[in-house]
Amino acid sequence: MHYKQNGYGKTDGRQQVGMWLAGLIIGVPALALLGFAGYCATLGSSAVLSALGVGLGVAAAATAVGAFLGFLFGIPRTLQGNTTPGPDEIADYRPNTNLEQISDWLTKILVGVGLVELGRAGVPARNLIASIGAAVGGTDAARVTAAVLLVVFVVWGFVASYLLTRLRAAGAFRTFEIAQITQQLLDDQAARDATALELLERTLNPASGVAPPSQEQLNQAIAAASPLIKAQAFLQASRQRQASWNRGSEKEKMERTIPVFKALIASDTDRRYHRNHAQLGYALKDSRQPLWAEAERALAEAIKRRGPRQGWILYEFNHALCLIHLDPNAASAETRDVVIADLAVVGSSKQGPGLLKTREITDWYTRSGIPRTADQP
């Protein structure tokens, strides 16, 4: 076995302790069994197998008793004082500590009873040693051998079990509990995602006779959904809006996307995404009864979150249309300046010339008497 050495050519102190403990745990029972085998060799050929069988059985039984006691004393304890779930726990889950409680009770009982009955243990112990000694030869040497087997393997089983429990049990329990918590979190998230998808379907494509969810219900479901489900909700709603916004017979279908975009905006507590606001603005603007003011605010927020970078120039174009409908004759100088700034952004893009020929834009220039720049048609 290779051990990493430090700069002075010496193994780490913990590794030295580990090597010493490993040698002790392996060497003690080996020496005891070797001594017992030597004793059996002094017996007659007819008694050797019988003595070996009894001795090995006694060693196994003593080891089991010691290992059980070592396990009881070595079981790690879970902190019980904190009733608030930690970051690795969920609100309705706490680790099951029944085994720890049983270990604690049995340990106290065994220690208490052992101390009380210690003075009376001599006679049963002598009787046990005498019985084992009689089975392995019936001589004084046999009784000494029996006593050695009992003491060595009880102590060895206790020490080995205690060390293994202390070194390994805590990690095993922690791994198991983390796996349980993770699985429960996954199951809970899957249930929340299923609820979000159900409410999404009821919102976008409600069945006959089934009422769509309220905005608050949809907000809560989308907020609790995973990022993948939120992305799916955005794609499904935006595709439905794009497929129906300019079809008069399907305007109602387009309007069903509005609650979805509002729910996505409500779930974006970090204020990271601009496309939710833009899609909401488009849907509000293109409704059967356009909500120009709400659409203008949504598009203004989309422009703000997007920042001054290239792309998504339809934000400025539709924002300008909203302002034109809110102030058709450019009575407000502030509104007029914002419209001109929006149209300048539109005109600087490849799509600009075509968009600026829109009738609403040309009529606004005519009504307001605002001269166009050289790059505007």
Strand and helix layout:
Layout: H1 13-41, H2 45-74, H3 98-116, H4 122-135, H5 140-204, H6 215-224, H7 227-244, H8 251-255, H9 257-267, H10 275-285, H11 292-306, H12 314-326, H13 333-347, H14 352-356, H15 359-368
Helix pairs in contact: 1-2, 1-5, 2-3, 2-5, 4-5, 5-6, 5-7, 6-9, 7-9, 9-10, 10-11, 10-12, 11-12, 12-13
Textual characterization of the structure:
This protein is mostly helical. The chain has two domains: 13-78 and 89-181, no CATH class; 194-368, Serine Threonine Protein Phosphatase 5, Tetratricopeptide repeat (Alpha Horseshoe). Helices cover 72% and strands 0% of the residues. It contains 15 helices and no strands. Helix 1 packs across helix 5 and helix 10 packs antiparallel against helix 11.
| pLDDT averaged over residues | 81
Content of β-strand:
under 5%
- Structurally, the number of domains stands at 2
Category by helix and strand content: mainly alpha
Q: What is the end-to-end distance?
A: 83 Å
> Would you give the CATH topology of the largest domain?
Serine Threonine Protein Phosphatase 5, Tetratricopeptide repeat
CATH class of the largest domain: Mainly Alpha
Number of helices: 15
Low-confidence stretches: 1-11, 79-85, 87-96
Please bin the fraction of helical residues.
over 70%
The count of β-strands is: 0
Describe the biggest sheet? none
* CATH hierarchy: architecture of the largest domain: Alpha Horseshoe
* Cα shape: rod-shaped
CATH superfamily of the largest domain: Tetratricopeptide repeat domain
Radius of gyration: 41 Å
- The H-and-E topology, N to C, reads as HHHHHHHHHHHHHHH
